[in-house]
Amino acid sequence: MKDAWVLRLKEESKEEDMKGDYYLSDDEVDFLTRDLSEATIISNKDKEIESMKVHEEVMNNKFGDSAVVNFGYTNIMKNFDFVEVVIEEVD
Q1: How many CB atoms neighbour CB 14 within 10 A?
Q2: What is the DSSP letter of 11?
Q3: What pLDDT band is residue 66 in, cutting at 50, 70 and 90?
Q4: Fewest beta carbons less than 10 Å away: which of 11, 31, 49, 58?
Protein backbone atom coordinates (compact mmCIF):
# COMPACT_ATOMS: atom_id res chain seq x y z
CA MET A 1 0.00 0.00 0.00
CA LYS A 2 1.10 3.54 -0.64
CA ASP A 3 -0.24 7.00 0.09
CA ALA A 4 -1.48 9.19 -2.72
CA TRP A 5 -3.90 12.06 -3.26
CA VAL A 6 -6.91 12.95 -5.37
CA LEU A 7 -8.54 16.34 -5.87
CA ARG A 8 -12.12 16.62 -4.57
CA LEU A 9 -14.36 19.45 -5.75
CA LYS A 10 -15.14 21.89 -2.93
CA GLU A 11 -18.77 22.28 -1.86
CA GLU A 12 -18.81 25.97 -2.80
CA SER A 13 -17.59 25.11 -6.32
CA LYS A 14 -20.42 22.69 -7.08
CA GLU A 15 -23.37 23.58 -9.24
CA GLU A 16 -26.75 23.56 -7.52
CA ASP A 17 -27.75 20.06 -8.65
CA MET A 18 -24.44 18.41 -7.74
CA LYS A 19 -24.81 16.15 -4.70
CA GLY A 20 -22.08 14.04 -3.13
CA ASP A 21 -18.37 14.04 -3.89
CA TYR A 22 -16.85 14.85 -7.28
CA TYR A 23 -13.20 14.27 -8.13
CA LEU A 24 -10.86 15.58 -10.80
CA SER A 25 -10.42 13.02 -13.57
CA ASP A 26 -8.23 13.37 -16.65
CA ASP A 27 -10.30 10.66 -18.35
CA GLU A 28 -13.66 12.44 -18.29
CA VAL A 29 -14.93 14.97 -20.83
CA ASP A 30 -15.79 17.53 -18.13
CA PHE A 31 -12.81 16.48 -15.98
CA LEU A 32 -15.06 15.39 -13.10
CA THR A 33 -16.11 11.97 -11.87
CA ARG A 34 -18.21 10.78 -8.96
CA ASP A 35 -16.32 7.47 -8.92
CA LEU A 36 -13.26 7.68 -6.67
CA SER A 37 -11.64 4.82 -8.57
CA GLU A 38 -11.72 6.97 -11.74
CA ALA A 39 -10.16 10.02 -10.10
CA THR A 40 -6.74 11.18 -11.20
CA ILE A 41 -4.21 9.75 -8.74
CA ILE A 42 -1.49 12.11 -7.58
CA SER A 43 1.44 10.17 -6.19
CA ASN A 44 3.61 13.17 -5.33
CA LYS A 45 1.59 16.10 -3.98
CA ASP A 46 4.50 18.55 -3.78
CA LYS A 47 5.59 17.80 -7.34
CA GLU A 48 2.00 18.20 -8.58
CA ILE A 49 1.65 21.56 -6.85
CA GLU A 50 4.91 22.76 -8.38
CA SER A 51 3.75 21.56 -11.80
CA MET A 52 0.49 23.52 -11.43
CA LYS A 53 2.42 26.65 -10.49
CA VAL A 54 4.76 26.29 -13.47
CA HIS A 55 1.81 25.67 -15.82
CA GLU A 56 0.08 28.78 -14.53
CA GLU A 57 3.21 30.88 -14.94
CA VAL A 58 3.80 29.64 -18.49
CA MET A 59 0.19 30.34 -19.50
CA ASN A 60 0.23 33.80 -17.91
CA ASN A 61 3.54 34.64 -19.62
CA LYS A 62 2.20 33.46 -22.97
CA PHE A 63 -1.36 34.86 -22.81
CA GLY A 64 -1.22 37.56 -20.13
CA ASP A 65 -2.34 37.77 -16.53
CA SER A 66 -6.02 37.60 -17.52
CA ALA A 67 -5.56 34.18 -19.18
CA VAL A 68 -7.94 31.40 -18.15
CA VAL A 69 -5.69 28.79 -16.58
CA ASN A 70 -8.05 25.95 -15.61
CA PHE A 71 -5.26 23.65 -14.46
CA GLY A 72 -3.12 26.30 -12.83
CA TYR A 73 -2.44 26.35 -9.12
CA THR A 74 -4.75 29.29 -8.32
CA ASN A 75 -7.82 27.81 -10.02
CA ILE A 76 -7.29 24.27 -8.76
CA MET A 77 -6.77 25.39 -5.15
CA LYS A 78 -9.82 27.66 -5.39
CA ASN A 79 -12.06 24.78 -6.50
CA PHE A 80 -10.54 21.56 -5.14
CA ASP A 81 -9.14 20.07 -1.94
CA PHE A 82 -6.40 17.47 -1.80
CA VAL A 83 -7.72 14.29 -0.22
CA GLU A 84 -5.27 11.62 0.90
CA VAL A 85 -6.04 8.10 -0.29
CA VAL A 86 -4.31 4.78 0.11
CA ILE A 87 -3.52 2.80 -3.03
CA GLU A 88 -3.51 -0.93 -2.61
CA GLU A 89 -1.95 -2.97 -5.38
CA VAL A 90 -3.71 -6.23 -6.10
CA ASP A 91 -1.78 -9.16 -7.54
Answers
A1: 15
A2: G
A3: confident
A4: 11
